[in-house]
Design brief:
The structure is a single chain. The protein has 455 residues and is of the alpha/beta class. 27% of the residues lie in helices and 21% in strands. It has a 7-stranded parallel sheet. Strands 11-10-16-21-25-26 form a 6-stranded mixed sheet, with helices on both faces. Strand 2, helix 4 and strand 3 form a beta-alpha-beta unit. The longest helix has 13 residues. The protein is globular. The chain starts with a helix and ends in a 10-residue tail after the last helix.
Length: 455
């Protein structure tokens, strides 16, 4: 017997071309987050390029180049904003297309959608097929979409919600759903495709050195937050080979390393204070194998970033260990993970959320990790990542008075609550040896170096 929800579904089922007619001049359109895509809606909106003016497309860490960007590379009809720059975003900007970052603390999304980004008029969602109760799942990314939908304590008045249904999306449990009664239009993909797999990055020799230092600081029963890339993959590999046990997961991003730890019997979530027995995250990116692991898995929960990244929630888990990568650290311990001068590289993401939350967890630690130097790809010039001063325009991700621990291949620098000269001493000790004298000289000239501390 046909249910009331099935009848409503059928009444809202339409083509992507018809659905995007709701987009008007000056509207803000939010795209699916991270590895999630809505290709039919994206192409249909791109096809309206010559009809529209000043439409802002809001992305969330692009993993592909959208059709609207390809259709309007000079951004004459569309404005492009990405919440956090990625390899795809940097490629778009390098091609000459104007695209801008909207950095911010992810746990503050509800306020963002009520204040700075309050003009969202249309939201595209990539979803699993509707269940018998009328609900669609967002699959791999609850992220900020939940906050977007629930801003101002409920669904935003007059916001159009368009879902693109893809049967090949994994069904992931958690607070990541929308009901047919709140949906404006339903689009069905004619050729459904699996979610975009993100190639696993193999750690370098440098990653191995840093990972060994970090893993040596992780206790049994730790609750882990890992980032993406070679370093977390290397850390996951080393933990899997270690004697550590009963680890937990409360993280912004769920990556292959967690699956590997689960399969190695290390990730049990049995010592967590909240969400006992479950790995909690707000989005997942990784291999096809990872997506299959998440499909229907009762041991995982994909939840709203407002909750997952809330420092007060993070701190509720004892022994919370946050491990993030960064670009550079200045002599006072200010950390940048976002830009090199005015050149945008990434975004704020959850680095500050987790750094603060982990520090306030009982037995918790927060690590910012980086190689001691960088090499310019064009000139081959080597520069220190521990610097006296950032380049003009460099964005600070974690302020020095909040920075807990900085790790390079040369060691671990504990910075929290230390005097300025003690921070200098600690940071010089983990800088590359070729740059230490220069840092000391700069600190002496600034009057923040005690010569007696020089080793």
């Amino acid at each position: 017997m046909e249910s009331i929800w099935t009848r409503e579904y059928q009444s809202k089922l339409t083509s992507a071309q018809n659905a995007v007619k709701v987009v008007n001049d000056g509207d803000w359109v939010a795209y699916p987050a991270f590895a999630m895509q809505a290709p039919l809606l994206d192409q249909a909106l791109a096809d309206r390029k010559d009809e529209l003016q000043d439409v802002t497309c809001l992305f969330a860490t692009l993993t592909y180049i959208p059709a609207v960007v390809k259709a309007d590379p000079e951004a004459k009809s569309f404005n492009f904003i990405d919440g956090s720059f990625s390899a795809a975003t940097r490629k778009i900007r390098a091609s000459g297309t104007p695209i801008y970052c909207a950095p911010g603390l992810l746990h503050e999304n509800p306020r963002a959608y009520e204040v700075g980004l309050k003009n969202i008029d249309v939201i595209f969602l990539s979803v699993t097929p509707m269940d018998k109760n009328g609900y669609f799942r967002f699959s791999l990314a609850a992220a900020g979409q939940i906050a977007m939908l629930r801003s101002k304590g409920g669904f935003k008045k007059n916001m159009k919600i368009i879902v693109e249904v893809n049967p090949k999306m994994p069904y992931v449990q958690g607070d990541n759903f929308v009901h047919i009664s709140d949906v404006s239009y339903v689009i069905e993909e004619t050729e459904s495709r699996p979610p975009q797999a993100i190639p696993s990055v193999t750690g370098t020799e440098m990653d191995e050195k840093i990972a060994k230092l970090v893993v040596s600081q992780i206790p049994d029963g730790a609750c882990l937050q890992l980032g993406i890339g070679g370093l977390p993959n290397t850390i996951g590999k080393l933990i899997a080979q270690s004697d550590l046990h009963d680890l937990g997961c409360h993280t912004e991003m769920f990556v292959n390393a967690y699956m590997d730890l689960f399969n190695a019997g290390k990730l049990t979530n049995k010592r967590k204070n909240i969400h006992y027995g479950k790995s909690v995250f707000t989005f997942a990116m990784g291999s096809a194998e990872l997506y299959d692991f998440l499909d229907g898995n009762p041991a995982v929960e994909c939840l709203d970033v407002t909750y997952v990244n809330d420092p007060h929630v993070i701190a509720q888990n004892d022994r919370m260990i946050s491990i993030c990568s960064c670009l550079s650290v200045d002599i006072f311990g200010n950390v940048s993970s976002e830009s090199d001068g005015y050149r945008q590289i990434s975004g704020t993401g959850g680095a500050l959320d987790y750094h603060f939350g982990a520090y306030h967890s009982r037995g918790g630690r927060a690590f910012m990790c980086m190689p001691s130097t960088s090499t310019d790809r064009k000139t081959g010039a080597i520069t220190s990542n521990v610097v006296m001063n950032f380049r003009t325009g460099t964005q600070i991700t974690v302020p020095g008075n909040m920075t807990n621990t900085v790790v390079t291949e040369y060691g671990i620098a504990e910075l929290k609550s230390k005097s300025t000269w003690a921070k200098v001493d600690a940071l010089v000790s983990v800088a590359h040896p070729d740059f230490r004298e220069g840092l000391i000289k700069g600190a002496e000239e600034a009057g923040i170096w005690r010569r007696s501390n020089k080793r």
